[in-house]
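Action item from last meeting closed. Structure (545 res):
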């Protein structure tokens, strides 16, 4: 029976055990049930994978393998990076996939898999421990308490070198065994030469030899459809390998960052990171280390497009604050368009901003991107679904500003995206984004182009520096992932990738002061017109100027 079906059976049994149910069983059934229950604890001890529940960031990383054979997960410390990757490797090795599995599948078995740790000690203590359940392969009692279920491990096939497991056969549901090899980066790249890998190569953590090892990994998987997965907390900074993935413009390499807030109890179900843990870490390490360990990114320094620490731009505005004083804020949506509903394609994005007139400050309130709805809707990147997202928000009548391709068609006909938004009842601004003339007479001066990227970036940086543009850095996770890695290239232009939330924010922030609409006019309108007037009147009376 499948690992996952057995787990479901135990769960369903726990739910229906009751005196009435037990009284309905025959004596033979009771004996069989007793034996089944008595085996439960041992079963879970040697089938740890059955209880693994992935976080959203892990599911995102898994699903990326459907369209990318090479992936890099740049992670903060202690958020389940190795545990999550071990769960993926275990399913590939056994071929027994969970019902929630949304990634690539190695269906046939008979392949080679590699795990490459930093040192021999870390390979044993992290990779072997996570996968096999032991850091000393001579410990047969605990063998099988890791992510690979005990029944799938061919213990007699294990090639040992003292406490180290060099290789072991893993049974696959197809009947063809996979072979798992363990290596350490300190062994050097030449120990990897001459082999071919049709399964997966897992490289864990940065090392001085990582680029040479990665080159070997690419060569060994070049003709086999094998995959490469890198997981690392960037302790060594933006290394050549990190930059290779980060700066890739081919679309073939996938990079994802994950932070403490991707595993925080406030933001994800079952999260294990708490504010107390974060405060303790903040107090015990340097600001430089804290940024890297909490957010999973190297500290970029002068290369960052928006070079402001997150503490400097952070705020905690709540929707209730806007709803209590809807005449004090202007609202506006910014958007950016994607062109396909695939994991590899750029997403369509929406960013909702609020402008508080009393303190002349713009706040990023909410975000959305089409990849969130890929499994729910056939074409989530197109205006029809984007309009649905806006209509179902608290501010369905907030104006929407579109980039220049708002004048293009989403369907190859003569209907522009702006026209489609209008037909769907969205309060879309009829002209595509341009810098308001009122802003061009300020200290920044006139832009070289009415949609100048450099000018608008400078405008946002000015607002950030003055404390006039604020983001709740723990809430819009897609936006903040882009913010942390958005860099200038050597030619003075920003890297044109992973910037779609940032672009939507940029359009909204530049536009909102002059084209935003009072929040009171952006709310859902009650069916009772008199109730609407009374509600506005009461809010006006309670407003203190």
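Sequence:
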């Amino acid at each position: 029976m499948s690992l996952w079906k057995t787990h479901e059976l135990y769960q369903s049994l726990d739910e229906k055990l009751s005196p009435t149910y037990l009284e309905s069983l025959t004596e033979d059934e009771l004996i069989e049930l007793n034996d089944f229950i008595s085996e439960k604890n041992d079963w879970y001890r040697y089938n740890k994978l059955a209880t693994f529940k992935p976080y959203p960031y892990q599911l995102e990383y898994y699903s990326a393998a459907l369209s990318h054979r090479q992936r890099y997960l740049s992670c903060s410390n202690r958020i389940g990076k190795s545990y999550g990757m071990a769960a993926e490797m275990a399913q590939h090795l056994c071929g027994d996939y969970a019902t929630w599995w949304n990634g690539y599948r190695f269906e046939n078995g008979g392949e080679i898999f590699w795990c490459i740790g930093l040192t021999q000690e870390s390979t044993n203590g992290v990779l072997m421990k996570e996968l096999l359940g032991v850091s000393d392969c001579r410990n047969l009692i605990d063998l099988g308490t890791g992510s690979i279920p005990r029944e799938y491990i061919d213990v007699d096939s294990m090639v040992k070198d003292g406490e180290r497991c060099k290789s072991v056969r893993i049974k696959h549901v197809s009947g063809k065994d996979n072979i798992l090899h363990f290596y350490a980066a300190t062994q050097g790249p030449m120990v990897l030469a001459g082999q071919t890998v049709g399964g997966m190569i897992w490289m864990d953590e940065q090392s001085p030899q990582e680029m040479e090892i990665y080159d070997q990994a690419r060569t060994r998987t070049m003709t086999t459809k094998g995959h490469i997965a890198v997981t690392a907390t960037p302790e060594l900074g933006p290394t050549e390998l990190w930059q290779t993935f980060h700066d890739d413009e081919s679309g073939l390499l996938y990079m994802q960052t994950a932070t403490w807030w991707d595993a925080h109890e406030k933001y994800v179900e079952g999260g294990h990171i708490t504010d107390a843990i974060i405060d303790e870490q903040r107090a015990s390490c340097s600001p430089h280390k804290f940024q890297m360990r909490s957010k999973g990114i190297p500290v970029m320094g002068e290369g960052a497009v928006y070079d402001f620490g997150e503490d400097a731009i952070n705020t905690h505005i709540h929707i209730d604050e806007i709803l209590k004083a809807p005449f004090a804020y202007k609202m506006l949506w910014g958007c950016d368009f994607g062109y396909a509903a695939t994991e590899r394609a750029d997403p369509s994005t929406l960013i909702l901003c609020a402008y508080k007139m009393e303190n002349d400050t713009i706040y990023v309130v909410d975000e959305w991107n089409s990849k969130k709805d890929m499994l729910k809707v056939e074409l989530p990147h197109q205006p029809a679904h984007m309009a649905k997202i806006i209509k179902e928000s608290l501010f369905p009548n907030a104006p929407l500003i579109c980039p220049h391709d708002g004048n293009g068609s989403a369907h190859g006909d003569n209907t522009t995206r702006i026209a489609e938004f209008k037909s769907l009842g969205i309060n879309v601004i009829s002209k595509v984004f341009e810098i308001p003339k009122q802003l061009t007479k300020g200290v920044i001066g006139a832009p070289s182009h009415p949609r100048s990227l450099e000018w608008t970036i400078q405008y946002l940086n000015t607002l950030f520096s003055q404390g006039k543009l604020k983001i709740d850095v723990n809430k819009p996770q897609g936006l903040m992932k882009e913010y942390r890695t958005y860099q200038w290239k050597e030619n003075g232009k920003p890297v044109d990738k992973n910037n779609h939330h940032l672009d939507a924010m940029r359009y909204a922030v530049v536009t909102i002061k002059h084209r935003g609409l009072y929040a009171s006019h952006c709310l859902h309108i009650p069916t009772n017109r008199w109730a609407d007037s009374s509600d506005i009147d009461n809010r006006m009376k309670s407003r203190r100027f």
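Note appended to the action item: Residues 500-515 form the longest helix (16 residues).
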